[in-house]
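Posting for a labmate who doesn't have an account.
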Amino acid sequence: MSYQYSYAWEKFGRAIYSLATGKDEIRRRLLVIFQDDLLVITPEHLPDRIRGDYQWIMHQLTKYDEKYLGERKYFSSNDGRYDYLISSKLEATLFRIRRNTAVKVAEKLFYIWSVLDEEFRSS
């Protein structure tokens, strides 16, 4: 396994552990693992055969911009002073998606980790 795949294997391993053992609701656990470990992962960190799966996950988790209509306008300022109050696309989406979608994302995350683990063990 090349260095770039071992980095992803480590990040996904920690994320899967947190996803499996976390006490929060699944959408909150997904937010935590992405903020802690997975936002640094890009498709280039992954083998070709699972890049599409990761891109699907990122699309599912960044569909929406705002928690509520007008949030961006309400918190925006010319000097950017309140920009930190605006939820990220990840946060906004995880507040809005159904639990069923969150479960599908978690299943894909486990699949990606299992492929990375297989790559790691076969090298």
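Reply:
Got it, the structure tokens are right above this. The chain has one domain: 3-122.
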